[in-house]
Write a structure and sequence with these properties.
2 copies of one chain form a homodimer. By secondary structure, chain A is of the alpha/beta class. Helix content of chain A is about 35%, strand content about 20%. A 5-stranded mixed beta sheet of chain A has the order 3-2-1-4-7, sandwiched between helices. In chain A, a hairpin with a 4-residue loop joins strand 5 and strand 6. In chain A, helix 5 crosses helix 7, helix 6 crosses helix 7 and helix 7 crosses helix 8. Chains A and B meet through helix 7 of A and helix 7 of B.
Chain lengths: ~350, ~350
């Protein structure tokens, strides 16, 4: 078995990629600008060159088992990106096939970033040995990757695990980016938390150091800093956020009874400030059958490596695409070209 | 491979059991009173005699592959019943092991009734060929069996799939049997629907033929009959119930993206009266990604056979218990006694 996989994390700004070994060590990594190329073929050319340079520099050209890619709205079943926001490439984009062809038929698997994080956590992080857990990513949005019986849940169409879009407020809920109102994401993403701050500051009159900031510019980091500095209103924002997350986690538990719910992403760095109210709320709202059974813990993946690690873990389960048309590679065909 | 399985459905009043072949035909069935015996060993003795009589009468004594049992609060992993309501046997009750020992080591698997219904539907009913679906049983309570990647979801502790206990009303919700408030079950079970009728009749003043009945005695069947007779208030009760179920189904979809949600149980017999408002509400509340993708359909299992069929289907995947102590069976040991 070839000793390496390549992980690629496609973000709105940067595409990060790296070579990873079977123990989860990132041997080497680099990045390119996602938006530099209006034409997706030019983008794939630059990605190929970037990855190939790393492989050559680390004597790994013939040693890659597969490539895993994490990207927003990526469908594991079809290998396509269904929808792109702020990136002008045509959709649905058959990215897995395009990258596989570029690499002479190397197996490529693709999934969304939250699912990639869950696979990474299961392979290298806090979920090692767990068969049933839920990964919640608290970033610009709220994403999720669900693992049941040791398998990632893709559902009938490849899009399962959109737990940021359960409805938490059925009356007078906030507008969500998905077009509906009251979604978990509208309250508990980094941007949702900033919205909570603006609501609290507008509705209430008590003092807060957050009032020193221009209200529209307040970020979740500002609220974290204020809470750490002892600001009562900022602490209440974390309690409000944790209350809603705890209610949601109690509902998730009656569905899949996970061993743990694992938090990842910018907001998860708030640590106990967020974990404590989540755990208290979750237990208070938990169906008696499940009380005291579900751990709420933080990801154990290093943030700098997590995206690449998570995507790379998918590379181990990538299979050669049945429809892949190996491109001509006259001089030295990659070793894993299908026979 | 032996050609038959035995299915046992343990209800609060009756225990129904039958011999089922690989095509899902119920060869023979019978029943005993669950509550006749205060001592569980006496109950198992009578169950053994009842099943054995059927097997002898149908020349099937040596032809049973396994026994599947559906029972409330049964844990697939441990083979135990964790909790009993209105039945005086000690819990946790190691029922799978006790029955297996009684049958000389025959493999026995046990799960709750809603999970058994899901397995039955997948093996013999509307979910044949489906890898991702959710079974919702609308009876005295609201139960569920969730299938993902072709496998029933038991979760980390064996109790996953309690979808009757997601919270649908976070403010001023009805008290649920689980001790919390606002659960789906408190609104959309047969008893929940009767509660809705009482609420509507008390709060409102418009005419309804339901007002001819003693208010505390109104059942979901009465409401169904009134709706079929054209009673506007009764129809509104079905619309209210369908609205809440549709909201819940939209939330379930972001979790596991099922191909279908299949309804079973007394209330499901209301047919289009309930299906139409469910489907309309579900689509109206659905995250755009999933709009138009999820079927809401009725079980295809005949009600008289469904409980036994569902439980029996579990018999095909039963394994000999590692801890089973085969009892002495001097004359003719059952053929599937572990070697």
């Amino acid at each position: 078995m070839k000793p390496y996989v390549v992980g690629v994390d496609i973000g709105g700004t940067n595409t990060v990629f790296g070579i990873v070994d079977a123990r989860g060590a990132v041997i080497a990594s680099s990045s390119i600008k996602t938006l530099k190329h209006a034409n997706v073929n030019d983008y794939i050319d630059e990605l190929y060159t970037g990855i190939n340079n790393l492989l050559v520099a680390h004597d790994a050209v013939d040693k890659v088992y597969g490539i895993g890619i994490g990207a927003p709205n990526a469908n594991y079943y079809t290998g396509t990106i269904e929808k792109l926001v702020n990136i002008p490439w045509p959709t649905p984009l058959p990215l897995a096939q395009m990258v596989s062809e570029k690499f002479g038929g190397l197996p490529v698997a693709i999934t969304n970033d939250a699912n990639a994080a869950a696979i990474g956590e299961m392979t290298y992080g806090a979920a090692r040995g767990m068969k049933n857990f839920i990964m919640i990513t608290l970033g610009t949005g709220v994403g999720s990757g669900i693992v049941i019986n040791g398998q990632l849940v893709y559902g009938s169409d490849g899009f399962a695990g959109e737990l940021g879009h359960v409805i938490m407020k059925r009356n007078n809920g906030r507008l969500c980016g998905c077009g509906r109102t009251g979604c978990l994401e509208a309250y508990c993403s980094a941007t949702g938390v900033a919205r909570t701050a603006r609501e609290f500051l507008e509705i209430r009159t008590d003092a807060s150091i957050l009032r020193n900031l221009p209200i529209e510019a307040i970020t979740s980091k500002d609220i974290y800093d204020a809470a750490v500095a002892g600001d009562p209103l900022a602490k209440e924002i974390f309690e409000y956020t944790g209350e809603i997350l705890g209610e949601a986690f109690a509902d998730f538990t009656v569905f899949s009874s996970p061993e743990a719910i694992i938090l990842f992403g910018g907001l998860a760095k708030s640590g106990e400030l967020l974990l404590k109210p989540i755990r208290e709320s979750m237990e208070r709202h938990m169906m008696p059958t499940f009380k005291g059974k579900v751990k709420v813990i933080l990801s154990e993946l290093k943030e700098a490596d997590a995206a690449v690690l998570g995507a790379s873990a998918l590379g181990w389960e990538a299979k050669p695409l049945a429809t892949a048309q190996p491109v001509a590679q006259p001089a030295t065909p990659p070793p894993s070209l299908p026979a």
